[in-house]
Write a structure and sequence with these properties.
The structure holds 2 protein chains of 2 kinds. Chain A has helices at about 10-45, 60-70, 80-95, 125-145, 150-180, 185-190, 205-210, 210-225, 235-240, 250-275, 280-290, 290-315, 325-355; strands at about 105-110, 115, 195-200, 200. Chain A is mostly helical. Chain B has helices at about 20, 25-35, 80-85, 125-130, 155-160, and strands spanning about 60-65, 90-95, 110-115, 135, 150-155. Classes of the chains: A mainly alpha, B alpha+beta. At the A-B interface, loops of A face α2 of B.
């Protein structure tokens, strides 16, 4: 009967963690919409939303309420079940990825109980992320196809083709990283990047894999369907793209899923390349402030890194014009994939002959 | 073809160098420009709180003037209506009764004076035409309305407040 023993405290702990992570990523995505509008405004020498509350901070709430109260329209000729499934799937996959990200170091209570600030420490964390991310394409594809609108269909074909071709380079750029870390578990990868400096070199993977990071970053722009690769919603060619026929909260789900995806992929990039919750002199800080505050600081450090990356995503969006579709495909297949392969080769050689 | 000016620059069609092909320096350059805009002065004027001054020749909503004793200056001569290119002004004249001397400046006055604001083009010709300095274009912006009916301004809407009556009626 030992196998059937259920640890109630464990379930409660995970439930609380799941709720906090879910609400947290929703909240951050909400304020990412506000941030996007502010960044866009500031870069164009405007002020941006500033009427709803101080600094326009209630703007996302107002937008959400507006979307909720809008009329829900399901087109007559659409495939209804799939039409509803599309945005749900987009939202589901967007929130699922956060399960394997370690948000902070383990917290050990006085009774010796270890609380992991990670939903599930599965040993194939990165594979899980890739799986869920490629599932996310279905949300767009189903939505675009079920709308029964040629613009939506074209847009979803574009999005799917783009996602599929950039996932290759994304995966290949990570293979080099995995050769270095020797583990697929995100928890393990973060643990290896402890602190900032060890044995005469930086511990963060960014300094070990700069080319891999670059490829990963470019590909995540494409995976997120964000400018300069936002061809799926090129207004001048496809009206609104795959969410043309959507209204009310279903449209909101699509838009929202995009921002959650941006937050999660920023967190993944921070975890993989910028040391996750690690920061310089963390051992000294741990000795100085005690474990509870140390955990809080670690979580805040990871969030800061993720938010900086989100801001970078936004800066790029408001700087670069959109790619042409053939240029996008050329960049993916003819530049990034060979580059990722070369990076893999160099990493392999370095591991073989330099690091031993 | 003969050049009209010597300012034209020929298009550079030379193949891209390696630095241009990898595109990253150009992205970086673009980012420095956009990030530099964070620190620039914002062009926005926060309208209801901040207002930009009008130009001295600004022509806004019309007012009908009164003299120093608060009597209406308009004598319903019709010159403004004649001058109006949009035919927005209509009026009806009436004769002043002996007991109305405190109300009207001259023996004749406008019993009805209407400006159709949907027709008015705010050219200011009425102001120029008026021999009695009775109509002026103020600096007030024209407000919007929900119906066509209320867009036709009556004399009561146009007259400036009586200087001696406090209520401003």
């Amino acid at each position: 009967m030992l196998l059937l023993q259920i640890d109630i405290a464990f379930i409660i702990e995970k439930l609380i963690l799941a709720t906090v992570i879910l609400l947290g990523s929703l909240g951050i995505a909400m304020y990412a919409t506000w941030g996007e509008r502010k960044v866009a405004a500031i870069m164009q020498d405007r002020i941006g939303p500033n009427r709803a509350g101080p600094l326009g901070l209630f703007q996302p709430l107002a937008d959400g309420v507006k979307l909720f109260f809008k009329e829900e329209i399901i087109p007559d000729t659409s495939t209804k079940a799939l039409f509803i499934l599309g945005p749900s799937l987009a939202m589901l996959t967007a929130t699922m990825t956060s399960a394997v990200i370690p948000w902070g170091p383990d917290y050990v209570t006085e009774s010796g109980r270890v609380i992991a600030l990670q939903m599930a420490d599965i040993n194939i964390g990165i594979l899980f992320i890739f799986g869920v991310v490629s599932l996310g394409v279905y949300g767009i594809m189903l939505g675009g196809w079920a709308s029964n609108n040629k613009f939506s269909l074209l847009s979803s074909i574009r999005a799917a083709a783009q996602a599929v071709s950039y996932e290759l380079a994304l995966g290949l750029s990570l293979v080099a990283l995995l050769m270095l870390t020797g583990s697929l578990s995100l928890r393990e990868i973060v643990a290896q990047q402890h602190g900032f400096w060890a044995d005469g070199y930086f511990t963060w993977n960014f300094f070990k894999q700069p080319l891999g990071f670059l490829i990963f970053l470019v590909c995540s722009f494409a995976e997120l369907n964000r400018a300069p690769f936002d061809l799926a919603e090129a207004e001048s060619e496809l009206n609104m793209g795959y969410h043309q026929e959507y209204s009310s909260m279903k449209l909101g789900f699509y838009l929202f899923a995009e921002y959650i995806n941006m937050f999660i992929s920023s967190a993944v990039i921070a975890t993989l390349f910028f040391g996750g919750y690690n920061f310089p002199f963390m051992d000294e800080v741990l000795a100085g402030v005690g474990q509870l505050w140390f955990t809080v600081i670690c979580v805040l450090v990871l969030l800061t890194k993720a938010i900086c990356l989100i801001l970078f995503f936004m800066f790029v969006r408001w700087t670069l014009p959109r790619f042409r579709y053939d240029q996008l495909m050329k960049l993916g297949w003819r530049s990034l994939i060979p580059l990722a392969l070369v990076n893999m080769l160099i990493t392999g050689l370095v591991i073989l002959y330099v690091l031993k | 073809m003969e050049k009209l000016t010597n300012r034209s620059v020929p298009v550079d069609r030379s193949p891209m160098t390696f630095g241009e092909k990898i595109y990253l320096p150009a992205i970086f350059k673009g980012l420095t420009i956009t990030v530099g805009h964070i620190f620039k002065k914002k062009a926005t004027v926060q309208y209801p709180e901040q207002k930009r001054p009008f130009s001295p020749v600004f022509r806004g909503l019309h007012v009908l003037n009164r003299d120093e004793e608060g009597r209406e200056r308009c004598t319903a001569c019709g010159l403004c209506a004649l001058a109006c290119p949009a035919e927005a002004i209509t009026m009806e004249a009436a004769e002043r009764k002996p007991d109305e001397e405190h109300l009207y400046h001259e023996e004749k006055y406008a019993a009805k004076y209407e400006i159709n604001m949907l027709r008015c083009i705010f050219c200011g010709y009425c102001e120029e035409a008026c021999p009695k300095d009775a109509i002026y274009l103020s600096e007030t912006l024209m407000p919007t309305h929900y119906s066509r009916k209320t867009m036709i301004y009556k004399k009561e809407d146009l007259l400036i407040p009586h200087p001696k009556k406090q209520s401003g009626q």
